[in-house]
Specification:
The protein folds into 2 domains: about 5-115, no CATH class; about 125-200, no CATH class. The chain contains 11 helices and 3 strands. The chain has helices spanning about 5-20, 25-35, 40-50, 65, 90-100, 110-115, 125-135, 145-160, 165-175, 180-195, 210-215, and strands at about 20-25, 60, 80. The radius of gyration is 19 Å and the shape is elongated.
């Protein structure tokens, strides 16, 4: 395997974990081969066995890492898992993994897929632009502060479970919404709900809630 292929595989690993949060190695192998000159499974296994995850934002996890009584997982069935899901135990992983069941992967074309290797990449939906515009119009926030907060909320909603916008709302309250700003806070919560419907979420394997449930998503 050439160094060029190894670098590209590292990019695919990083893009996959940033987009999905959790993904089995066999699926990464499938996506890679569908978008590039195919490599053999033995070549892929050798690469995965030798990758050093100690300085990365993810790890390769088998069932035996979660339950010491579980038999050793075959390498191809092990999963890439984002660090935030196991840094404080396995509850986050278990919840997101359960929510992913039965949902197909959102797989963009190669050029767009690889943009996700940048952990700060996200699709700027109209809903995101609306949230950012609202924040920019608050008199006590600079444009830079508003943009940073909007991006923080985008990534917060990407990683959070289904309809959990409470952390984002809590952060909004900390911005300085006072009692007299209740109407603004209500408006902002509505914008966050709309953004939540259109963020590419880990719990939906890279899909948005709108893509998974359509207009019926509003009743869930």
């Amino acid at each position: 395997m050439t160094d060029e292929i190894k670098v590209l595989l590292e990019d695919y690993f990083l893009a996959a974990v940033n987009l999905y949060g959790i993904i089995p190695l066999w699926k990464v192998f499938e996506i890679y081969n569908n978008q590039n000159e195919p490599i053999t499974e033995s070549e892929f296994r050798e690469f995965a066995e030798n990758i050093d995850c100690s300085n990365k934002s993810y790890d390769i996890i088998g069932k035996e890492d979660i339950d010491k009584k579980a038999p050793e997982t075959d390498l191809m069935k092990k999963e890439l898992v984002a660090e935030y899901m196991y840094i404080d135990g396995w509850e986050e992983y278990k919840e997101i993994s359960g929510l992913q069941e039965g949902i197909d992967y959102y797989i963009p074309k190669k050029e767009r897929f690889l943009r996700y290797k940048d952990e700060f990449f996200y699709e700027k939906s109209m809903e995101f632009i609306d949230v950012r515009a609202f924040l920019r119009n608050l008199p006590y926030l600079s444009k830079e502060q508003a943009d940073t907060i909007a991006e923080d909320m985008e990534f917060m909603l990407q990683a959070d479970r289904e309809d959990d916008i409470i952390p984002a709302v809590s952060q909004a309250i900390e911005l300085g919404f006072k009692d007299k700003d209740k109407i603004k806070l209500q408006e902002f919560c509505g914008l966050l709900m709309d953004l939540n419907d259109n963020v590419r979420k880990h719990c939906y394997r890279g899909h948005t809630k709108k893509e998974v449930f359509g207009d019926f998503g509003d009743i869930f």
